[in-house]
Amino acid sequence: MTRTKVIAGNWKMNCSLEQSQALVTEIRGMVRDERNNDSEIVLCPTYLALPSACKLVQGSSLFIGAQNCHSETNGAYTGEVSAEMLNHLGVSHVIIGHSERREYQNETNAFLKEKVISAIKNNLVSIFCLGESLEQRESGQLWDVLSRQLSESLLDTSVTAKNLIIAYEPIWAIGTGVTASAAQAQEVHSFIRNWVAQHFSVEMAEETRILYGGSMKPDNAEELLSQIDIDGGLIGGASLKPRDFVNIHKLAK
Ligand code: PGA
Predict the structure, then answer these.
(1) What is the pLDDT of residues 175-194, one digit of tens each?
(2) Which of 235, 239, 245 to mutate to test the pocket of ligand 1 (most atoms within 8 A of CB)?
């Protein structure tokens, strides 16, 4: 079974509207000249840039994702944006459960599950993030932490290999320049795939894309992306540099 790889750029709270438009346009132009590369690209700018980003990728192979959504459809949730609103805009993907939101917005596994359910209802592909802190890894809690994140957010939802992409992002590797070794990442990805097989089905496990995120750059991407269970990357810092981002995409085949 070959899984189409996915390279997603998480722009976080970076780029003005104009800068975002320029970045989308530049990446679109660079990718147009790539040959024989079916791997998917998802760009996740801030909410402000989503409407124009959706227009700028029309007619191309690029997808636009949001960095977050709320679990409710509408109502008194000041500052929030719903999955339905994103879908109406033409957004196709949404990052759910990024560790920065888990930490700074106190998002719990249970709340993230509500978001996943809402994303599915509104035809968005969830890029569901999970990962452990260094302390959790060093104290032997890695598998427990990951199992809990998976169980409490994904069980009893209608996730499928089509509406779910999983992103393993060890917190200690995000924005730090420290990357998980290919062996460390592969070990976790294989664990996640087995978890999906046990709790959903072997077929779904074989088809579900599992991305690695955490200081992925052109010089470490090749080894990471060559691991059997690594189906792409969720890229932060390097996604703001169009040449680096597209070079990572070129390695994803
Ligand atoms: P990084 O971020 O590539 O800058 O480490 C990845 C992420 O947070 O998704």
Answers:
(1) 898 889 999 999 999 999 99
(2) 235
